[in-house]
Amino acid sequence: MKHLWEKLDLVGFVLPLLLLAAWYFVTASGSIPHYLLPSPRRFFQVIVDFVFGTAKLTPYSGKMMENLIASSIRVIHGFGLAVFWGLLLGFLTGRIQLIKRMIDPTVHIIRTIPGIGWLPLAMLWFGIGEKTTIFLIALASFFPIYINVAHGASEVPLVFLRTGRMLGANKFTLFTTVILPYAFPSVVVGLRLGLGVSWAYLVLGELTGVSRGLGAVMMDSRMLGQMEMIPAAMICIGILGRLTDRLLMKVCNLIYPYNEGVIK
């Protein structure tokens, strides 16, 4: 416990405390109506009720876990697809010039299309709901993974590859012992960016009409006049995003512990 306290950076609490104080004074003065910005007290009461369901303050009383699980499953599916295709095509593009010439220009053209531009097409292809959300998450998170993996794979020094071949490494061994370890920091950057994008596009997908999920809570709350639930759902997404990012870092450091100083 003492070690944890020593690692805690108290400076990081300065801005949140200032924002909280400004929030309190603005709402207490009445300069902003409560239906546009609830008081901190009301907001925290709603959050507690969202988690535990004791006060029945909103229609979402006690329903945080079921919405959280629904959103997490969608992110896992979409991000998983992006990881598979991003790693596969990224390493192929980074190491094989012919594949780069075939794939890379098209990928970068598609990348420039805003994610929201795919929404009408996704709804036509997959309908409203689950599949559209997963498609949008996978598409948006694919690009940062692909770009960073391809960059990392292409930057492996030629002398490393020649040394590996001189020592008798075949193509698979060369990949696992030279290319992957050298490119791994870039891979991690791509995975972290892709995971962050996944949580952002989760909201876009869930606004299309799914019955459960944190994005659906935000949309329904606006229509029902439950303004407090919108930032409550946003905070849940932010916390989930941070926790999954830390989990991803732990997994990456388990795969290559000697990169722990680089991967933070």
Write a compact overview of the structure shown.
The chain has helices spanning 2-7, 14-29, 40-52, 64-95, 97-111, 119-126, 130-154, 158-166, 171-206, 214-224, 229-255. It is an all-alpha fold and 264 residues long. It has a domain at 84-211 and 235-259: MetI-like fold.
Describe the structure.
The protein has a domain of 153 residues: Orthogonal Bundle (MetI-like fold), CATH 1.10.3720.10. Helix content is 75%, strand content 0%. With 264 residues, the chain is mostly helical. It is built from eleven helices and no strands.
Give the helices and strands, then pairings.
Layout: H1 2-7, H2 14-29, H3 40-52, H4 64-95, H5 97-111, H6 119-126, H7 130-154, H8 158-166, H9 171-206, H10 214-224, H11 229-255
Helix pairs in contact: 4-5, 4-7, 4-9, 4-10, 6-7, 7-9, 8-9, 9-10, 9-11, 10-11
Q: Main attributes?
A:
transmembrane, elongated, 11 helices, 0% strand, 264 residues, membrane, mainly alpha, MetI-like fold
Q: How many beta-strand runs?
A: 0
Order of helices and strands: HHHHHHHHHHH
Q: What general form does the structure show?
A: elongated
Number of helical stretches of at least 4 residues: 11
Strand percent estimate = under 5%
Give the class from helix and strand content and strand pairing. mainly alpha
Instruction: Indicate the CATH topology of the domain at 84-211 and 235-259.
Output: MetI-like fold
Instruction: List low-pLDDT spans.
Output: none
Q: Based on the coordinates given, report the CATH architecture of the domain at 84-211 and 235-259.
A: Orthogonal Bundle
Regarding CATH, which class of the domain at 84-211 and 235-259? Answer: Mainly Alpha
Distance between the termini: 21 Å
